[in-house]
Specification:
There is one protein chain. The chain has 89 residues and is mainly α. Helices cover 87% and strands 0% of the residues. The protein is built from 3 helices and no strands. Helix 1 packs parallel to helix 3. The radius of gyration is 17 Å and the shape is elongated.
């Protein structure tokens, strides 16, 4: 329990930020999951659109400070590698 007014405000701000970050992290995970479903289904058109969509969502999460840029780069790299393997094979 916070003893000062400013500490009580920080608790409220922290909770708001937690929900905001959870929303964006969940959105990123869902986009990646939809992309991987398209890869397993070998749907070439869907792979391209889902890849672009997922990369855009990940980039927005980086710009909002939810995930680190290196984490985003790693996830996008793994997705691009999976997409090229699926489209080639």
């Amino acid at each position: 329990m916070p003893n000062k007014k400013s500490a009580a405000k920080r608790v409220l701000i922290g909770e708001k930020n937690r929900l905001y970050n959870r929303y964006w992290k969940t959105r990123c995970k869902t986009a990646v999951k939809h992309f991987l479903e398209a890869v397993t289904a070998k749907d070439h058109e869907s792979i391209k659109t889902r890849l672009d969509e997922a990369q855009g969502i990940i980039d927005k999460a980086v710009s909002k400070g939810v995930i680190h840029r290196n984490t985003a780069a790693r996830r996008k790299s793994h997705m691009a590698k999976a997409a090229s393997a699926a489209l080639a094979g």
